[in-house]
Amino acid sequence: MAKKDPPSILIVDDDRATQRMLADALSKQGFAVAVERDGEWALKTFEKKSFEAVVLDLLLPAINGYEVARKLRATIKGKKTPIVMISGVYKNALHQKEAVQKHGAFAFLEKPVRLQALYETLKSALGDRYPQKREEPPPPPMVDEVTAERFADAAAQEEISHVETQSRRSVATFQSIRGDFTQRPFPEVLAEIYRWKGNGALLLRRDKVKKIAYFRDGVPVSIKSNLLSECLGRVMVREKMISEAECEESLKRMKATSRQQGTVLIEMGCISPHNLVYALTLQLQLKLFDVFAWEKGEYQFNPKVPPPPDPVNLEMTTAAIIHEGVRRCYDAARLSRAMGSVDALFVHPSEHPLLALQDAGLGEEENQLLQAADGHKTVSTLRALAVLSPLETDRFLYAMTCAQMIELRDRPAEGKPKPTISKLADSAPRPPPLPPPPPQLQGEAKGQTAPPLPSPWDAGPTDPSAEAPLPKKKPGKGDRKEPVLARAAGSLLPELSEVVSTGSLSGEESLIRERLVNKVQQMRKLSYFEVLGVAQNASREEVKRAYFALAKEYHPDKHFGSASAEIRQLAGQIYDLISTAHDTLADPDERDRYLKDLASGVKRDIGDEVGKILAAEGKFQKGEELLRQRNFRAACGMFQEAIELYGEEGEFHAYLGWTIFQLNPEDPSSTDSALRSLEKAVSLNPKLDRSYLFTGYLYKATGRPDKAEKQFEKAIQCNPDCTEALRELRILGKAKR
Fold first, then answer.
1. Which residues are CB-neighbours of 540 under 8 A, at least 6 positions away?
2. Dihedral class, residue 294 (left if φ above 0, else alpha if ψ from -120 to 50, else beta)
3. Residue 142 — φ and ψ, nearest 5°?
4. pLDDT grade for 94, boundaries at 50, 70 and 90
5. CB contact at 8 A, 454 and 628
């Protein structure tokens, strides 16, 4: 097999975290990866493309993994394709035996999947077709302007314009922190911004190439480039997700219909909504990793430039980005120049939990090497352990040094070797579990949907909270066959009269938020001893172990990817609280003072900000319930009160805008006010699909289908499972044809 034609593998799993973990790991092994979350799309994708192997979860929506395997085996090319089944539920000896003997699996692996076991299984299944890992990093991609121009869509051209405009503004209007990569390499720049917890834009220049990386709380969230070679079509073709012919056909249809390329590819059956989001995330990552290959160039950080409201982001922590970028782009000579003479230096673990417990996306061998870095071994000793190859060991040590998870010193640690913070966290008793979600959310956690919210064109009872009954709609405009139009009457399709099924945050994020809210409410009533789960006479070592376990559980990296301000704030408050509890109880004098406070009834409460968040959340939930009851006026009041208490949560603004529009859909000023609220929601939380969905419905109801279509496309990018947006895109697509 040619090096430029890597073997393809299909991953089918409905858990996004597992999906990303497996995709990243197998991409590093040299596979071209396609991902699907359900059996139906997996079968379609397998039918259209060639795969060397399939990694298949058994518990899938709609069609289970056994049935998917049966249908794959029924096809000609599926008869010989190795299928590796995985499951965290069906994993006893009988299930494993049945998977192989009855359902034709090559092997069965339990979740959580051990990556080394997966690699060995695939090597056994594929033999010499398994990709060979290269010691040297791949060369930077060649810029083929002719091919790039052919694969570029309108979004790529707009991105180039954005980068050039922002570059000129940054130079002209702001004297910011700047430097040169010959003096400070890119991994060290990323680590510095992480230390600052910086928010803003990092302008990157190398000759004519310009990129802008956007940061939130020290973590890169998105990046834009003026290179046409990094456009979506080129990336998808290069990664074997689509063929060149499919890419070119999608561009023709895109230009004819003014639709986004991803939407067209979904309609063509080339990719699924989940594969589109995977491709968009991969595109961002490739743009960023390319900068690691720059040995010269300039950077300039501007904290006054906020990240654009993009629905897809990088989905990686800073430490994971540094680790992966160094692994891809640093050869032995470059590492030698960056690190200098380090063979005799001792490798110490970070003593700061916030740094030591970062999520760097490490594999099993890398974690083993990190645990061996106890302050008593030199760089040469760690190389000699042969956990990784010498080159991979040096890449790992340089990346971890940049990420500040380890330090290189000229002296060993004092005393006997001690376990690292991460090892202590792993060996400590499990922290107190998060409380279960409220009863109203438990149905959603099991896959059930919440009661639908009404749409503005859905006929219903009058608003009981109004001082006078709301006026009835005129005949011909208020019935279910002809929706209310605020503007441009006559351009709306009749299908819009159906009830809109909506929800709040994605099911996963909604559940996280509810659990964090419950955890904060629980912690507010506890003493510091109860927060850490230790007795009042606990030793300093017991306090430390309990703290490290909790610090790992609630580390900011756990929620770095959430665009919900509430989730980030609540998680941050929990982390701060357990840190304060540790600092108080680990110091004998502070502990004595705290015990006296407890005895006298003095309580140290969580700050006012958390109290406001909890109160705002309560108002919002009441507003949701009132909205389901079609009590628009009262719901609007609740959403406004939630925003007054905590105005940084995009979801609150989205539902306020939606409710304002439903109060008076025929009034242009109400429509404008609703749009302003929805725009605010997008700026605060660009990953909330409901903001785009509501905006799309609003545009469609007011006779602007082209604008509505773009909003529905963004809703899909936020949440590939947003069935309402997929449905609306199909309706609008039929109208165009």
1. 586
2. beta
3. -75, 140
4. confident
5. yes
Over residues 606-622, mean pLDDT: 83
Q: In the 8-state DSSP scheme, what is residue 149?
A: H
The verdict on whether omega for the bond into residue 112 sits within 30 degrees of 0, i.e. cis, is yes
Here the tokens at position 55 are 């990694």
Residue 555 sits at the vertex; the CA angle it makes with 319 and 604, to the nearest 5 degrees, is 145
Q: Residue 281 in contact with residue 315, Cβ under 8 Å?
A: yes
Residue that has been written with the tokens 């009533």 in this structure: 525
DSSP letter, residue 160:
H
Angle between the 318-329 and 16-28 helix axes, to the nearest 10 degrees? 20
Name the 3-class secondary structure at 302.
Answer: strand
Cα gap 35→14, rounded to integer Å: 10
134-138, 612-616, 667-671: which is most confident? 667-671
Q: Is the Cα dihedral 555, 559, 561, 567 positive or negative?
A: negative
Q: What is the pLDDT of residues 619-637, one digit of tens each?
A: 999 999 999 999 999 999 9
Gap between the Cα atoms of 732 and 712, Å rounded: 10
DSSP per-residue letters across 203-224: EEEETTEEEEEEEETTEEEEEE
Query: Which residues are CB-contacts of 438 (< 8 A; sequence separation ≥ 6)?
Result: 514, 518
Would you report the helix, strand and coil content of the chain in percent, each value rounded to 5? Answer: 55, 10, 40
d(CA 690, CA 457): 18
Strand partners, 177: 301
How many beta carbons lie within 10 A of that of residue 79, not counting itself? 10
